[in-house]
Design brief:
Elements: H1 2-20, H2 33-64, H3 78-110, E1 122-129, E2 132-137, E3 173-175, E4 178-181, E5 186-192, E6 197-201, E7 206-210, E8 216-220, E9 226-232, E10 244-250, H4 252-261
Parallel strand pairs: 1-5, 4-10
Antiparallel strand pairs: 1-2, 2-3, 5-8, 6-7, 6-9, 9-10
Helix pairs in contact: 1-2, 2-3
This protein binds copper (II) ion.
Length: 263
């Protein structure tokens, strides 16, 4: 029986390592995504080695310490066990803290905080509302017009509650598709009208919660023209499954055309 367990555990471990060794990541379409993919792979390799070694050790010990007539008191002393446990705990803590700290730096890279201001970023305000996305561009003046919650009315054609008496709002563009130019820095400001949503574009490796009452900024550079999925990654209500939109990454010329046409 112990031998059977040894074989089954070893085979399961090898099969898991084989499947996790395949590439599961979607197409990469942003400049920052390469670092995130690298971090994913690093985590997978480090934790994969830990998984492989511990599972094989488990299989071996199941077999080695199988039930049989053993002399009492021949096991390791309690002192040895405590020392081994402390060592393992310290290694595990180092591993998790280490990978977390690298991850935190990567996460901070995607946080705008004035980072891209000097490079003329494309500004878009992302509005999440059960169960739709609205993308607002500031227009040629570069300023978003004022919004007022009491003016929000999708049936009146003003889902964001834009105050049309504000001159800055005159040239604002609202779109249900996110259009962005390729190879230019993008600053998104995330807003939520009702509950917490999560703006997720797998190909950009961008995922950030949109929280009511907060303006959350993220930053990235699309590197590949094409059409990609924008989904909500936070269970936000009954219609959560249909809360998706399209991201179209265009060359600069077509992007400028879109801005002109919709004005
Ligand atoms: Cu949602």
């Amino acid at each position: 029986m112990a031998l059977a367990l040894l074989i089954v555990l070893s085979l399961l471990t090898l099969a898991s390592c084989y499947f996790f060794g395949q590439s599961w990541l979607p197409l990469l379409a942003s400049a920052q995504g390469a670092n995130i993919d690298h971090q994913f792979k690093l985590d997978l390799i480090v934790l994969g080695i830990v998984f492989f070694v511990t599972q094989l050790a488990l299989a071996f010990f199941v077999w080695k310490y199988r039930e049989r007539n053993v002399r009492q008191g021949s096991g390791p002393s309690p002192d040895t066990t405590t020392r081994t446990e402390i060592t393992w705990l310290a290694i595990a803590a180092l591993l998790f803290l280490g990978t977390n700290m690298i991850g935190a730096t990567l996460w901070a890279d995607g946080d705008v905080a004035g980072k891209s201001a000097a490079r003329n970023p494309v500004q878009v305000e992302v509005n999440a509302v059960q169960f739709r996305w609205y993308f607002r561009y500031p227009g040629p003046d570069g300023k978003f017009g004022r919004t007022r919650p009491e003016l929000q009315d999708a049936s009146e054609g003003n889902p964001l509650g834009i105050d049309h008496t504000d001159p800055d709002s005159k040239d604002d563009i609202v779109s249900s598709t996110l259009l962005l130019p390729v190879d230019r820095d993008v600053d998104l400001t995330l807003k939520a009208q009702d509950v917490i949503h999560s703006f997720f574009v797998p190909t950009l490796r961008v995922k950030q919660d949109a929280v009511p009452g907060h303006l959350i900024t993220i930053h990235f550079t699309p590197t590949r023209p094409g059409e990609f999925d924008v989904v909500c990654a936070e269970l936000c209500g009954l219609g959560h499954y249909q809360m998706n939109a399209k991201l179209k990454v265009l060359d600069e010329e077509h992007f400028q055309e879109f801005l002109k046409q919709t004005r």
